[in-house]
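Data deposition worksheet. Section B asks for the primary sequence of the deposited chain exactly as it was used as input, without tags or linkers unless they were present during the calculation. Section C holds the resulting structure in token form. Section D is free text for depositor observations; keep each observation to a single sentence. Incomplete worksheets are returned to the depositor.
Section A, Depositor: J.P.
Section B:
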Amino acid sequence: MELVLNEEGFLCKVSDWNKEVALTLSRINKIELTENHWEIILFIRTYYQNFKHLPNARVFTKAIAKQLGVEKGNSRYLHKLFPQGPLKYACKIAGLPKPPTCL
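Section C:
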């Protein structure tokens, strides 16, 4: 299956996503996925499925802290996983649209 991405590298159809797609997107974005990455990627996918929208960065961080604990729900931890922007790159690898608050 060939990935169809928009000009910013986001998957055009959310329904095309699976774990193989995530691995391909992570390679394109030079992010080596660990269990910690997967936890955040699956978290943001569930959030999107439940709320039908993406949070801003502050709400994203607070929601992670509430569900996964404050040691993971803080910007320092999230920037270690996704140095170029936690919300943007978690969404990108999760096959979700670009968050409206991201540049």
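Section D:
The two ends are 29 Å apart (CA to CA).
The domain at 14-93 is CATH 1.10.10.370 (Arc Repressor Mutant, subunit A).
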